[in-house]
């Protein structure tokens, strides 16, 4: 059976001068930095950027409001001093950011950064995959919510068929990138695709991960009744393609892993609605306009861009970031499960990349 664990470049776990791993108020270490490089996207998926809200006249960020590559690298270097080992590039659609390979190349050179990944809809990957791999990108998470054209066209709001995404997947594999597929599962949207997606990617050396429809942002019409739970997803697949549980790859992994009993690979389920992984969350998110968010479901961010542009740097910058993480108490998924008041305004997923 092939080992589908995430490949971390252990050679890059090199010492960082004065590295001081830190923990938040609840004892959770800081390990992962997610960087949104742009707020624009070329699709309008109903659960993320519905076209009724993000129309043709929607005002996206002007270029001068985006963090520059120099500013992103400056922050990544400071976070590496505090224990960050993994970086994920997100959007919007990150491949819409010009010269993204140049940013990845610079991030790859930061001591202590052992893994760089990219979340994308894959449409632009055929032209970019080899360059990104050469720059130091190791993995891509590709969003694909249906394998049948008509269902996918309805979801993405641009009537784009699956072929451009499938070509992007093949380009990523050809470039030597590890590939995972993310499918958001929502009742009334794509329940019918759970089994077809599993059958399509089984035996292809590609891990398919189902994601419970989450209440991120304020415009996706989230309702608990629309959630297809992990239990339901696993049960549906197991009826036709028998599964068995697999152990987690690493501390803080958000997906529950399941192997096909016949050795045909594995699937995962990210279940932040019916389960909670707050207790092991090690992630901080940096928005395209330079705000830091300590939770996917946060209401407000910390404006680090303003401080950098006013001269904050070096040890003072690192201290500021350490203080922010040290104050962190977020546990939204726990609170949702405890039926506490979570009916608050939240940052849009398209703004911080999920």
Write up what this structure looks like.
With 354 residues, the chain is of the alpha/beta class. It has a domain at 22-181 and 281-352: Aldolase class I (TIM Barrel), CATH 3.20.20.70. 29% of the residues lie in helices and 17% in strands. The protein is built from 11 helices and 12 strands. Strands 7-8-9-6-5-4-3-2-1-10-11-12 form a 12-stranded mixed beta sheet. Helix 3 links the parallel strand 3 and strand 4. Mean pLDDT is 89; it is low at 1-6 and 10-14.
Strand order of the largest sheet: 7-8-9-6-5-4-3-2-1-10-11-12
What proportion strand?
A: 15-25%
Overall, the morphology is: globular
How far is it from the N-terminal to the C-terminal residue, by CA? 31 Å
- From the alpha carbons, calculate the radius of gyration and give it in angstroms: 19 Å
């Amino acid at each position: 059976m092939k080992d589908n664990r995430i490949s971390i470049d252990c050679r890059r776990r090199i010492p960082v001068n004065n590295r001081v791993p830190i923990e938040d108020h609840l004892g959770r270490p800081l390990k992962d930095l997610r960087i949104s490089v742009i707020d624009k996207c070329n699709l309008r998926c109903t659960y993320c950027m519905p076209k009724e809200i993000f129309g043709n006249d929607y005002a996206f960020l002007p270029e001068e409001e985006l963090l520059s590559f120099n500013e992103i690298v400056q922050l990544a270097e400071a976070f590496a001093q505090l224990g960050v080992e993994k970086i994920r590039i997100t959007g919007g659609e990150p491949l819409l950011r010009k010269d993204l390979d140049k940013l990845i190349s610079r991030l790859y050179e930061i001591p202590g950064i052992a893994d760089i990944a990219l979340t994308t809809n894959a449409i632009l990957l055929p032209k970019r995959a080899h360059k990104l791999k050469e720059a130091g990108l190791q993995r891509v998470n590709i969003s694909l919510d249906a394998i049948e054209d008509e269902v996918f066209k309805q979801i993405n709001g641009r009537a784009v068929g699956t072929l451009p995404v499938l070509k992007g997947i093949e380009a990523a594999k050809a470039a030597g990138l590890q590939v995972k597929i993310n499918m958001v599962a929502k009742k009334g949207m794509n329940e019918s695709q759970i089994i077809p997606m599993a059958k399509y990617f089984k035996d292809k050396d590609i891990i398919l991960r189902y994601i419970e429809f989450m209440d991120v942002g304020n415009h996706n019409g989230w309702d608990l009744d629309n959630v297809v739970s992990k239990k339901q997803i696993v049960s549906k697949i197991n009826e036709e393609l028998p599964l068995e549980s697999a152990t987690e790859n690493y501390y803080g992994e958000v997906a529950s892993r399941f192997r096909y009993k016949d050795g045909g690979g594995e699937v995962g389920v990210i279940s932040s609605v019916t389960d909670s992984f707050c207790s092991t969350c090690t992630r901080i998110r940096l928005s395209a306009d330079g705000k830091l968010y300590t939770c996917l479901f946060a209401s407000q961010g910390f404006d680090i861009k303003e401080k950098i542009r006013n001269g904050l740097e070096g040890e003072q910058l690192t201290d500021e970031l350490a203080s922010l993480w040290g104050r962190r108490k977020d546990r939204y998924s726990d609170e949702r499960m405890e039926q506490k008041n979570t009916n608050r305004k939240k940052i849009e997923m398209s703004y911080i990349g999920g």
